[in-house]
Write a structure and sequence with these properties.
- The protein is an all-alpha fold.
- The protein has five helices and no strands.
- The chain has one domain: 434 Repressor (Amino-terminal Domain).
- The radius of gyration is 10 Å and the shape is globular.
Length: 64
């Protein structure tokens, strides 16, 4: 699953994820659309905010 799929599965809005992670909503949108790739610092913030293993964000698996 990719970032958007993980976020939606956890019923978290981009706005809420922005507040939980400290990453702007605009940047989250760019990550989800593929326009930008997060650095390791933001991957760590996202994994903590979403309560998922970092590997889920680094090596996303296709949704079943």
């Amino acid at each position: 699953m990719n970032l958007r799929e993980i976020r939606e599965q956890k019923n978290i809005s981009q706005y809420r994820l922005s507040k939980l992670s400290g990453i702007s909503q605009g940047l989250l949108s760019a990550y989800e659309s593929g326009h930008k790739k997060p650095g390791m610092d933001n991957i760590l913030k996202l994994s903590q905010a979403l309560e998922v293993d970092i590997a889920a964000l680094i090596n996303p698996k296709p949704a079943a």
